Every structure is written in C-alpha cells, then in structure tokens.
Amino acid sequence: MTCREFAEFLDAFLAGTLPSEQALAFQRHLAICADCIAYLDSYQRTMAACRTLRGEDALPADVPEELVEAILRSRGGRR
Ligand SMILES: [Zn+2]
Hints:
Blueprint lengths: L2 H13 L4 H13 L1 H20 L11 H10 L5
Bound molecules: zinc ion.
The site of zinc ion has 6 residues, from α1 and α3.
C-alpha cells in the first residue's frame, strides 16, 4: 500500500467498512510509515473536533480509536 492509497482508504478504515485484506495492508503500512501515522493522528483530531463542535461526541464510535491508539503506542509514538 502506498501513502496515497492509505489516505484513500482512511475513511473506510475508520468507518470499519474496509475489507479485512485491505484493513490488514492498511495497518501494515501504518506500522512502517511515520508520515501516515502523523496524518492519521491529525485526521482523527480533526474528526474529534468536528464531532465535538456538532455535539456528537457521545455517539458510540464506529471508529476503532482504541485500536488506532494501540498501534500508535506500539510504535512508541513520541512527538
Ligand atoms: Zn504512508
């Protein structure tokens, strides 16, 4: 997977609609690409900010944020 594909699949991945094969490739790319980790991080902050602004913060999240956090943490994500 390339960074461009990563960006294209990001929505589907976060929505949980990405086919498992692609989700795997997605996570594999996320494990090796600092750029995409940073991209995902800022993307999620933006999404969270939007939800907060719309007052939807309490919605049950489709977003596997814990999974993402775990991935980021396992990378030793220091910024
Ligand atoms: Zn990348």
